[in-house]
Amino acid sequence: MTALDFNAELDTRGLFCPEPVMMLHNRIHDVQVGEVLRVMATDPSTTRDIPRFCQFLGHELLGHQELDGEYHFLIRRCES
C-alpha cells in the first residue's frame, strides 16, 4: 500500500477492542464518500471487527494485510 492508495488515515496502534472500531466510526465521517481511509492497528481482533463494521454500515473494505504485527486496512467510504 502506498500513499496513492488512500486519502486519509487513522492510527489505532496500541489500542484494544473496542477503541479501534469506535475511532473508525467517528473518523469515517471525516472522509468524503468515495474516498479511502487507511486504518493501522495492532489489535488482532480488528481483523474480525473492521470487516464486520464495513459490512454492517455498507462501506467497502478494499483490502487488508498484516505487516510486522500491524494490521492495515483500506476502506472506501460509501453512502450510509
Provide tags for this entry.
80 residues
Question: Could you give a short description of this structure?
Answer:
By secondary structure, this protein is of the alpha+beta class.
Written description of the protein model:
- The chain is α+β, with helices and mostly antiparallel strands.
- It has helices spanning 19-27, 46-57; strands at residues 8-11, 36-41, 60-67, 70-76.
* Major β-sheet annotation: 4 strands, mixed
| Order of helix and strand elements from N to C terminus | EHEHEE
Enumerate how many helices there are, as a single number: 2
Which structural class do you get from the secondary structure elements?
A: alpha+beta
Q: List how many beta strands DSSP finds.
A: 4
Q: What strand line-up does the widest sheet have?
A: 1-2-4-3
Rounded mean pLDDT score: 94
Q: Uncertain segments of ≥5 residues (pLDDT<50)?
A: none
Rg from alpha-carbon coordinates:
11 Å
Beta content comes to 25-35%
Shape: globular
Measured as a percent range, the helix fraction is 25-40%
Distance between the termini: 26 Å
Set down the secondary structure blueprint.
Elements: E1 8-11, H1 19-27, E2 36-41, H2 46-57, E3 60-67, E4 70-76
Parallel strand pairs: 1-2
Antiparallel strand pairs: 2-4, 3-4
